[in-house]
Amino acid sequence: MIVPRKIIFVWGLFLPFLVLAPHDPIFLKISLVFIAMLLVLSLTDALTAVSLKGSIHVSAPEICHIHLMREETLSLEISNDSQRSFDLLLNPSLPYRIRGKEAFYEMRLHGTSRNSFSLECVAERRGSFKYSFCMIEFPSLLGLWSYRKKAGLNCEIRVYPDLRKERKTLNAVISAFLNGVRSQQIVGQGRDFERLRDYQAGDSYDSMAWKATARKGRPVSKVFQAERTLKIYAAIDVSRLSGKLSSDGAPAIERFLSAALILGTAAERQGDLFGIIAFDEQVRRFIRASSGRPHHIACRDAVFSLESGMQSPFFENLFSFIRTKIRTRSIIFFLTDLGDPSIAESFASEIKLLSVQHLCMVNSIKDPRSSPIFEEGIGEEGEIPSALAGHISWMRLAALRRELANSGVRAVLSSHESFTSSLLGSYMDLKRRQLA
Q1: Is-above-0.70 flag for pTM?
Q2: Closest-CA residue to 313 (of 341, 286, 282)
Q3: pLDDT tens, 240-290?
Q4: Pairing between strand 331-335 and 231-237?
Q5: N or C: which end of the chain has fewer CB within 10 A?
Q6: Where are the domains of the chain?
Q7: Using CA atoms, how far apart are residues 267 and 136, in angstroms rounded to an integer?
Q8: Strand pairing partners for 66?
């Protein structure tokens, strides 16, 4: 689209005076000729602006990676195929929830040149965004007109969780676990078969190799070695329960995703295999446990765009999927919210069969209102009903933890701020004890 610049309007102010000049026929003819020349000149100048529209191109990478609530830069390439040099005005027109530092940018384009431009922005929401166009404006040769053009872009902006703060605050904790676990004494005999040997006093009946005993005619025991490589899965709840807001206003799913990715980093450093499961009423994402940098990127790309849904979790489908797809014994961390009594009851009843095959762990964010009634005291009489409700919720969760413990499932409740460190602590404790 072509638009006039200010100088056109300034010239337009003098045109009426020329027409309304003294009624001298010669002067009137000169005025009309002058007006006609101005019109021809302006139209010719407008054509110079239009002729440039095919010479200006803006391109962006096919995929851009940035992080949530972090100052990042997007790289744009602007090319000028014409011989002219001029000033270009750029309006980024970023997708909704990605905020640019400036509304307009002005730059100088030289003839037949390619220019790289860094666009500063901050993403206010995690997910995948389509960046399809930006607006550019450039002047005509004489500066009488400006041509505004929508420059098409085929760019996908992927906004990942920002793990920088968590890595800084938890670096000491992770280092203490990861550096010390190799030198710690392994508790238990492990589960990987190593060899057979003659029975020794103190060997349990569970370790007896009865077929070898019958064949050799003397007691023979099985020797197991501690498992050094474990398969770790993070099962992330993306149902309506993960949309519950925490004290800082962020939904629980943000903490679940960040904690799962940090857990994957810890497993990679420890030499374990890590996989991802995302579920609501059905399994939405599944990445089989593996290791390596490409696998970590695949896990990140699989979950970065997940959002809380409107469905309730259907654990029967989830556990059936796990029993079908994951045959070997693994450690599965369920990152979910069991605050709903009916859903918690369903979870406790359905997980009994799964816990026979896999070692299951439940990590949930604790509701700050759920606590014993006299733990912090009651300030006013009006707080009694809410305190009683919190006490009932606390008792129900305590009963749920005991029921899960009877099925061999550990349940850990932690605050929103300590959720990641609690998950890492549970993993490293299981790793050290070789309970898998």
Answers
A1: yes
A2: 282
A3: 989 888 777 789 999 999 999 999 988 888 889 999 999 999 999 999 999
A4: parallel
A5: N
A6: 1-160, 164-186+228-433, 192-225
A7: 48
A8: 159
